[in-house]
Automatic annotation (TrEMBL), chain B:
It holds the Pfam family ABC_tran. This is Iron complex transport system ATP-binding protein. Residues 8-250 form the ABC transporter domain. GO terms for molecular function: ATP binding. InterPro entries: AAA+_ATPase (IPR003593), ABC_transporter-like_ATP-bd (IPR003439), P-loop_NTPase (IPR027417). It comes from the Bacteria. It comes from Promicromonospora iranensis. Keywords: ATP-binding, Nucleotide-binding. Gene3D superfamilies: P-loop containing nucleotide triphosphate hydrolases.
TrEMBL record, chain C:
It comes from the Bacteria. Keywords: Signal. Residues 1-23 form the signal peptide. Belongs to the bacterial solute-binding protein 8 family. InterPro entries: ABC_Transporter_SBP, ABC_transptr_periplasmic_BD, ABC_trnsptr_F420-0_sub-bd_pred. The lineage of its organism: Bacteria, Bacillati, Actinomycetota, Actinomycetes, Micrococcales. This is Iron complex transport system substrate-binding protein. The keyword Glycoprotein does not apply. PROSITE patterns: FE_B12_PBP (PS50983), PROKAR_LIPOPROTEIN (PS51257). Pfam families: Peripla_BP_2. Residues 63-333 form the Fe/B12 periplasmic-binding domain.
């Protein structure tokens, strides 16, 4: 290879077998450490040893280590507030990043994110309806139903126009998003009582503040099942790299694959949105950032995006909890504040390569 | 009755959309070990025919009446083959397929191995070896570590050819493989096709440049308005009586002093 | 000429000082716990239906976090200031008539606090002025706090649920809340005394009898957020002898278009003075806008100013009525 040709602008990457596969265990380690460190950080002045004692007690090793349990309240802060919240953030971040990567490849649109098919607006509509109707217990269900409903609408709209091509998918999703967003605004405007809009607003911006162990089970379970399945579709998504025809020529059943993947993304996103509201930018930025290291092949991109997305949201939420202490921010504000400039940077970098 | 013959045999291929017939009862015969050129003016249906033959043309309607179309390759019905199996027999090189994604050339070529391995598997050493062989065959070995987005048109065409070759096809369909290439790159591309044919591969290439077809192809199929107007050896198709009504220009056919192949010269009619 | 108008708190607080000072001197203020305050044993545990959520305390709460002025001042007025371990989101200074405590003088959060910041104070009760102070983003949702052994209580007048939202809010509702808080803290006697004093002070007020109409402008510029038919503004205006021009809107507060305001052309404008939206600014807006400039109340400068903390249901409403009546009388001097 001539030196002139090797002088490409990015560090050459990708195909040597040793390096990329090291990235996975490394990213997994970063995620675990992030969770471990984040749980010791918060507005409340809990010491490391207190957090350690609480976690050890609940993992059933506290007694064996001869540790004294914390007061119910301090223990609750660690185990009922911080821990579920951080784990939910990790699961939601991981799921959104995978869904974002899949959507970007499936629609061959670098601006695609998990909410592309109107999922977040549909979920918001469902959530806002139950919040304002005063039955917040139904919120996760309503959000999920809203998300899947919006997906069904968007796909039937795209399907009604003919084959589900990337462009039609994007346009149909946009139309449904706008429709649902208008409906959300109308519902809020029409019926928000007193300061009920605050709750709605924090939900619309995306937050894991209300996470419980149930949220961990729903978001974590969805990511483990659907996220893993999606992450295994790397070869299929690879085949879409040069478009639908190229994918078909490589033996991929293009339409069926697109339907199945879209529905998988929708179910996973719906489950995540039901727990956290629609947290922006994670699904958009993370896949782009990870691609800088892995290249476009999905076998590594998908799991690495998941692990990186999990760590990212854990830290974003830690910022949300602590920056304006004693106030807390919805994490969606933090991801947007970080995501928008990062996205601008990626765009700029793309132009200067 | 179609005889069992090596190569591609397509009969009664029709395809239309929105009530307009793009291909009307087309038949193609492309023998193994030969380069078959698909000629015709813009809009004559060359690209559509290639995609229909490759089984990747979506939607649209077949002609309703009469016996259905057949596409057989080496005696096997291509339409009846499962997709992945078909992708191991047949490769398609599209025109201007690009991507915005950051992808190295080697990764792009490795995509051609997808039909040959389990959907869950990663690249094996055998896959990488096949990719390097394909890169070498396409004359793109030195590009392996480059990023696809940074390649010139000719380089990209070689990469797409290498990707198709990595599929190890016995039938390769190419849509304008010399489009936008400079003359050296055009000749290089045609050289690769000739080498493939020499290895026994069935090559079908849609071509714009009649002189390139004249110098490279063994057989030609000339399309006009979705119908086959002529088919056969180069010397039978590239004659003024056939070409002039199709292209609407005056054609003079000369003979190449070294190769003895036809050389065409055109005037406004 | 405005400055003395926009700080009426001191002026109108005077008549009530004597009354409230009594409460501040009740035994609970001297460091004894409420259980000693002649409360018959056996009234605990207390369980209340609070905005549709069950508030349950086993014993009189000893460590209380108050959120917003209305709740903080309620406890101070009941002489329960020593129970406050932390106070947040205060709408303005505590009136001089109330004896304050360090936790109130230095609030732990200027706005609605988050859950960890709240729980760090290890409260046994969080007493919130608004339902939105008790959500996951703020001090924590009520179920979660209950699971952690922290009771929650929202000022009942702030309940938004159907069947719980006072419709309309009356002084009886306000006095009932005082009594309910008294029972929650085992301070029934102090609460009864405070209610008696407040009732007496209210009865002593001679409402303005000139049949004047008024608009209560709380906040908002694009579309003013005004006191409507069933909330504290309506209650205060009615008691002061004013007719609320937005009384036919069945809500506590409502947004009203400027066109409606100008058309209604009330005799008097009641302006709420809040740090984030001072009465001065409101007056400037009114006098600079060509449409509102022509309103009778603006031309005659008939403004009545009420401090924001006095405009939510609580112990300062009676004083607010007295102040409004006094300012109305002043307008014609």
């Amino acid at each position: 290879m001539s030196p002139a040709i090797r002088r490409s602008r990015l560090p050459t990457r990708g195909t040597s077998p040793s390096r990329p596969w090291l990235a996975l265990p490394l990213a997994a380690l970063v995620l675990v450490v992030s969770i471990g460190v984040a749980v010791t950080i918060g507005p409340a002045d809990l010491t490391l040893s207190e957090v350690g004692r609480s976690v050890a007690t609940h993992l059933g090793v506290g007694g064996a280590l001869g540790l004294e349990p914390l007061s119910a309240l301090r223990d609750g802060m660690v185990w009922q507030l911080r821990m579920p919240r951080i784990l939910t953030a990790a699961a939601v971040g991981a799921g959104l990043a995978v869904c974002g990567a899949v959507m970007q490849s499936l629609t061959r649109n670098p601006l695609a994110d998990p909410y592309l098919l109107g999922l977040s607006s549909g979920a918001s509509l469902g959530a806002v309806l139950v919040l304002l109707a005063g039955v917040p217990l139904l919120l996760p269900v309503a959000a999920f139903v809203g998300a899947v409903g919006a997906l069904a609408l968007a796909l039937s709209l795209a399907g009604a126009l003919g084959t589900i091509t990337p462009t039609r998918t994007v346009l149909a999703g946009l139309a449904i998003s706008q429709l649902c967003a208008a409906a959300v605004s109308f519902v809020i405007f029409w019926s928000a009582k007193g300061d009920a809009f605050r709750e709605v607003l924090s939900w619309l911006m995306g937050s894991v503040a209300s996470a419980t162990w149930t949220s961990v089970a729903v978001a974590g379970g969805a990511v483990l099942v659907l996220g893993t399945l999606l992450a295994l579709t790397g070869s299929v998504l690879d085949a879409f790299t040069f478009g639908d025809t190229a994918a078909a020529a490589l033996g991929v059943p293009v339409n069926r694959a697109r339907w199945i993947l879209l529905i998988g993304v929708a179910l996973l996103t719906g489950a995540l949105v039901s727990q956290s509201g629609s947290i922006g930018f994670v699904g958009l930025i993370l896949p782009h950032a990870v691609r800088l290291f892995t290249g476009a092949r999905h076998r590594l991109l998908l799991p690495l995006s998941a692990l990186a997305g999990g760590s990212f949201l854990v830290w974003a939420d830690t910022l949300a909890r602590t920056v304006f202490e004693p106030r807390e921010l919805p994490v969606g504000i933090v991801t947007a504040a970080i995501g928008a400039p990062v996205f601008a940077f990626l765009l700029w970098r793309g132009n200067h390569r | 009755m179609p005889t069992t013959q090596r190569g591609l045999t397509a009969e009664r291929v029709s395809w239309g959309i929105d009530g307009q017939l793009i291909l009307d009862d087309v038949g193609v015969l492309a023998p193994a070990g030969a380069v078959t050129g698909l000629l015709g003016p813009n809009g004559s249906g060359k690209s559509t025919l290639l995609r229909v033959l490759a089984g990747v043309q979506q939607a649209g309607r077949q002609a309703a009446s009469g016996p259905g179309p057949t596409t057989t390759f080496d005696g096997a019905d291509l339409r009846a083959l499962p997709r992945r199996e078909r992708a191991r027999v047949l490769a398609l090189v599209e025109q201007d397929a690009g991507t915005d994604l950051p992808l190295t050339v080697l990764d792009a070529v490795l995509l051609g191995r997808i039909p040959h391995r389990s959907l869950l598997a990663g690249d094996s050493d055998a896959d990488r070896a096949a990719a390097h062989t394909a890169l070498a065959a396409a004359g793109a070995q030195e590009l392996a570590d480059r990023e696809v987005g940074t390649l010139s048109g000719g380089e990209r065409q070689r990469v797409h050819m290498a990707r198709a070759l990595a599929q190890r096809p016995r039938l390769i369909l190419l849509d304008e493989p010399t489009n936008h290439l400079d003359i050296a790159a055009q000749l290089h591309a045609m050289r690769v096709l000739r080498d493939l044919a020499a290895d026994g591969v069935t090559v079908v290439a849609a071509l714009h440049d009649l002189n390139l077809a004249a110098s490279t192809c063994d057989h030609l199929v000339l399309l006009d308005g979705g119908r086959v107007v002529a088919a056969g050896p180069v010397g039978e198709v590239l004659v003024p009586a056939v070409l002039e009504p199709v292209y609407g220009v005056r054609v003079d056919v000369l003979t190449h002093p070294r190769t003895g192949r036809p050389v065409l010269s055109f005037d406004r009619g | 000429m405005h400055p003395h108008r926009v700080r009426p708190a001191r002026a109108f607080a005077l008549p009530a000082v004597a009354a409230l000072a009594l409460a501040a001197c009740s035994p609970t203020a001297s460091g004894e716990t409420a259980t000693d305050d002649a409360t018959p044993p056996g009234s605990f545990p207390v369980s209340l239906d609070n905005c549709g959520f069950e508030t349950e305390v086993e014993a009189p709460p000893e460590r209380v976090v108050t959120i917003k002025s209305s709740t903080t001042e309620m406890l101070l007025a009941l002489g329960l200031g020593d129970r406050i371990v932390g106070s947040a989101f205060l709408d303005g200074p505590v009136p001089d008539s109330l004896e304050t405590v360090p936790a109130v003088e230095e609030p732990f959060a200027a706005e609605a606090p988050g859950s960890e910041a709240t729980l760090e104070l290890e409260p046994d009760l969080v007493y919130a002025g608004w339902e939105s102070n008790l959500t996951a983003e703020t001090a924590g949702d009520r179920e979660t706090l209950a699971r952690l052994g922290v009771a929650t209580y929202v000022s009942p007048a702030a309940c938004k649920e159907d069947g719980y939202m006072p419709d309309p809010l009356t002084f009886d509702t306000v006095f009932d809340e005082i009594a309910e808080v008294g029972s929650l803290f085992g301070a029934e006697d102090a609460a009864a005394r405070l209610v008696d004093e407040q009732r007496a002070a209210l009865d002593a007020i001679e409402p303005d009898d000139r049949g004047r109409t008024a608009l209560w402008w709380s906040s908002g510029d694009d579309a003013p957020y005004v006191g409507a038919g069933i909330g504290a503004p309506q209650m205060i205006m009615e008691a002061a002898g004013l007719t609320n021009v937005a009384a036919d809107v069945h809500d506590t507060w409502t947004s009203l278009g400027w066109e409606n305001v100008v058309e209604a052309d009330p005799d008097v404008l009641v302006l709420v003075d809040a740090a984030w939206n001072p009465a001065d600014t409101k007056i400037e807006t009114l006098e600079s806008n060509p449409a509102t400039r022509e309103m009778t109340a603006v031309k005659e400068r008939r403004y009545v100013v009420v401090p924001f903390p006095a405009t939510e249901a609580g112990v300062r409403n009676v004083d607010a009525v007295a102040s409004v009546v006094e300012q109305l009388a002043d307008l014609d001097r």
